[in-house]
Write a structure and sequence with these properties.
Low-confidence stretches: none
Number of helices: 10
Largest sheet: 2 strands, antiparallel
Distance between the termini: 64 Å
Strand content: under 5%
Number of domains: 1
Number of strands: 2
Helix content: 55-70%
Shape: globular
Order of helices and strands: HHHHEEHHHHHH
CATH topology: Arc Repressor Mutant, subunit A
Length: 164
């Protein structure tokens, strides 16, 4: 094996960037859950509230809401007052994470990560065997695409009619 000089600073920078990518992917899954459970919409409707109140408002289990909120706090998405025990979604963040954002709803975009990830084994097989991934394996992705189309084509009309 040949001895190769390695730029330690470059290697460390790359490793840090890759770790950030993995962390971002994990946060994207949490963002997807916030969209799919309507937690962002619920938070946008509430003043700062306890995890119990947020769970009640969203019709969800408090334990999971509390753990999700902690992950969202770590990701810089929600804010928390530990003394009051309250959580909130800053209005500036709600503009990108709630259904009222229409086509600008980044939380919806994050909800594509999981359906695409479900296809990883199929894509891996295609790398080895050729072919492709059958459309029949893409049910969740098809549902996501349907919601994407609705957001782009119906939301402006809904907003103009005052339906949102």
């Amino acid at each position: 094996m040949a001895v190769v000089d390695v730029d330690a600073t470059r290697a460390e920078g790359f490793a840090g960037r890759m770790l950030g990518t993995v962390n971002g992917a994990m946060l994207a899954l949490g963002i997807s859950l916030g969209h799919r459970t309507s937690l962002y919409d619920a938070l946008a409707e509430l003043e700062p509230a306890t995890s119990e109140r947020i769970a009640e408002h969203a019709g969800l289990q408090e334990r999971y809401v509390r753990e999700w909120l902690a992950g969202q706090l770590a990701g810089g998405i929600v804010e928390h007052d530990p003394q009051a025990g309250t959580w909130w979604l800053p209005r500036e963040h709600a503009l990108s994470l709630t259904r009222t954002a229409g086509p600008n709803n980044i939380a919806f975009m994050a909800s594509a990560v999981s359906p695409f990830a479900e296809l990883e084994d199929d894509v891996l097989a295609a790398f080895h065997d050729g072919g492709g991934v059958p459309w029949s394996r893409m049910e969740r992705l098809q549902a996501w695409q349907s919601e994407l189309s609705y957001g782009y084509y119906h939301y402006p009309l809904d907003a103009a009619l005052g339906l949102v």
